[in-house]
Amino acid sequence: MKIIGPDYLVFGVDDRAACDEFLTAFSLTREDLPGGATLYKAADETGLIIRDRDDPDLPAPLPTGAQLRQQVHGVVEQADIDEIEAELSKDREVKRLEDGSIESVDDQGFALKFQVTIRKPISMKSEKINAPGDTPGRGLDEIGVWDDMPTPPRALSHAVLFVPEIKGAEDFYVNRLKFVVTDRMEEVGPFLRPQATRDHHTLFFIRVPDYMQGLEHAAFHMAGPTEVMVAGTRMVNAGFESFWGPGRHKFASNWFWYFKSPMGTNLEFDADMDQHSDDWVPRSLERGAENSQMFLLQHREKWSPGGARPAAKPE
Ligand SMILES: [Fe+2]
What is the DSSP string of 251-274? Predict the structure, then answer.
């Protein structure tokens, strides 16, 4: 079952204008879709589809009223969809659409769609560094950061779901959709990698009471830590609320910076996630702040040495 990862996350939102302002500031590219939907896409054309909450074309909402309405997973080829259809049809309704994609639900009631992936191959340089002892990553006179450097999100990376029942959620994705557990945060949930990506995870679960079920955050991959910092600083300066970061996770090693979004979830810039072979042995760590990040930085107003006039010498 060659599932690659999320092509789209689909939302039914309360405030389209606020979402447009936030997602534009996040440097996603806007594309109007038929039927009144708007796609905010990364460089590889994966992204977030925004519709009105009461749009009749959306799948039914969760009982919690979460604005996340569907996860669209991209697969390698039509045969993968046929395989998923055969598997899920054993115990639930699977609807086949005209284009060959299928829609169903997982064991927790999250709406799912599977399609031959729409993601486009991209060719963009990652962040390069210079360090003694290794060949310089950048050429002579090639600077590492500049004022108006672009910070385009490159690909929709992962979704983290608030789920009431971790064991059932893990069993569904591992046993039915053949995801692999890469690591585990005890009493919280597993990190899951589908078969057709090497990224550490495209899904993670956090256990919550029923009334909180929904999307905790979604993340987009960036070129490297500098882009995470620059893009995040621009979000702060534009008045958006930082939720967590900047910092670097222990599991997956990815740099992160999360912002509160008007879609009722957090949206993360991330960079430099670990990639894994099929031989990787999952680790397990106790839940807690120490294990959730290697370090966490705090944003503060810009400062300059020598920039402020020295105070008068005390008498
Ligand atoms: Fe994340």
Answer: TT--EEEEEE-TTSSEEEEEE---
